[in-house]
Write a structure and sequence with these properties.
Blueprint (H helix, E strand, L loop, with lengths): L5 E6 L5 E6 L4 E5 L4 E5 L6 E6 L5 E6 L4 E5 L4 E5 L6 E6 L5 E6 L4 E5 L4 E5 L6 E6 L5 E6 L4 E5 L4 E6 L4 E7 L5 E6 L4 E5 L4 E5 L3
Antiparallel strand pairs: 1-20, 2-3, 3-4, 4-5, 6-7, 7-8, 8-9, 10-11, 11-12, 12-13, 14-15, 15-16, 16-17, 18-19, 19-20
Length: 207
């Protein structure tokens, strides 16, 4: 398959999906219409369970091996969430006024901030920014880590890009399957992606 080829897709459980992450077995997705985070079986697309957040405009979601982390443009903080109970364990201020995509690399968090289009590397223990660099294009939305590089979705050019965090440069990119790209997740082989307008979750080949 060619880079960016959609392998398959399925409908999201509610409208206006935004954040997306993979926990090693299942997907987690938040939908703004219901203020809910859903755990989804990636094989069937069915909802396993759901967590009501009451958070407006939750947009970034990631998994650290034990807990979920989330943020959003109306949340303005980064919060660690127990996925079993839905309890917020702790939180700290986001370094950007409009926080969006969120990723975990096994040690640190990465945040895509739409204000100024900046990508931040953050110490999750302290909330302190380790470093930051300019995102490759405008309106950064989704973010994920594949074990070596970052993948970012952005609305200006409707593209999904692979970024080398060491050099801060784009390695390759492709057109997103929809016109309002949001969350990204990596399952060890393929990308998963959600679009705010199509209300679809896409599994995408990256070669």
């Amino acid at each position: 398959m060619a880079l960016g080829t959609v392998i398959r897709s399925f409908a999201t459980p509610a409208g206006s999906p935004s954040g997306l992450t993979f926990d090693g077995r299942t997907l987690w997705l938040n939908c703004l219409d219901t203020l809910t985070i859903y755990q989804i079986d990636p094989v069937t697309g069915t909802v396993i369970r759901s967590l009501l957040t009451t958070e407006l405009w939750l947009s970034g979601l990631t998994f650290d091996g034990r807990c979920l982390w989330y943020t959003g443009e109306k949340v303005t903080t980064i919060r660690q969430l127990d996925p079993k109970t839905g309890t917020v364990i702790r939180s700290f201020p986001a370094p950007n006024a409009v926080p969006y995509g969120l990723a975990f690399d096994g040690r640190t968090l990465w945040l895509a901030g739409r204000s100024g289009n900046i990508i931040y590397q953050i110490d999750p223990a302290t909330g302190i920014t380790i470093r930051s660099f300019a995102a490759p294009a405008g309106f950064s939305r989704g973010l994920t880590f594949d074990g070596r590089t970052l993948w970012e979705s952005e609305n200006t050019n409707k593209r999904i890009s692979q970024i080398d965090p060491a050099t801060e440069t784009v390695i390759r990119s492709f057109r997103s399957p929809g016109d309002n790209p949001r969350g990204l997740a990596f399952d060890g082989r393929t990308l998963w992606h959600v679009d705010y307008e199509t209300d679809l979750v896409y599994q995408i080949d990256i070669g």
